[in-house]
Amino acid sequence: MADVELTMTTQVPVSTQEAWAWSTSLQSVRAEMRPLLKLVFPKGMTDIGANTMLGKSLGRCQFLLFGLFPVDMSKLTFTEIVPGHRFVEQSQLLSMHAWRHERVITPAPDGRGALITDHVKFAPRFAAPVVRAMVKLLFAHRHKMLARALGAQPQEIAQNRDGRARRDRSAW
């Protein structure tokens, strides 16, 4: 199975520093996923920060569908963190041959706030079309929730396959 790649960008009316603080708070990550998933982070982990160990598993994360049913497990691993700008998470998941999630925070081109961009690349172990649809749904939901929490309009900016931005409500 070929890798699947999805990119979503949402403009929020906050500074890049505020967008970064949101993106690296475990409480915010949980808020982005609720109520679809509950993410149980490794014990003792409080945030994704400059002191986060890179390249080694921080422990196991459990994904609970609707907060009740275990649906996946990962060995949470960050490979790159540029404080205030981006992080890259490449974790081993039970459901994936490969998983890479990059979140980038940049100033909005119109000078009004920040852009939060998620780029995910993954190779499902099974049921690729279903897994692709579920990951797409999860990240669309995450962007809807972060837009709501940070005061953005409900409209996202998504990239076409040729890299040009487009605006619509479906995002992908």
From TrEMBL:
Descriptive protein name: SRPBCC family protein
InterPro entries attached to this UniProt entry: START-like_dom_sf
Lineage of the organism: Bacteria, Pseudomonadati, Pseudomonadota, Betaproteobacteria, Burkholderiales
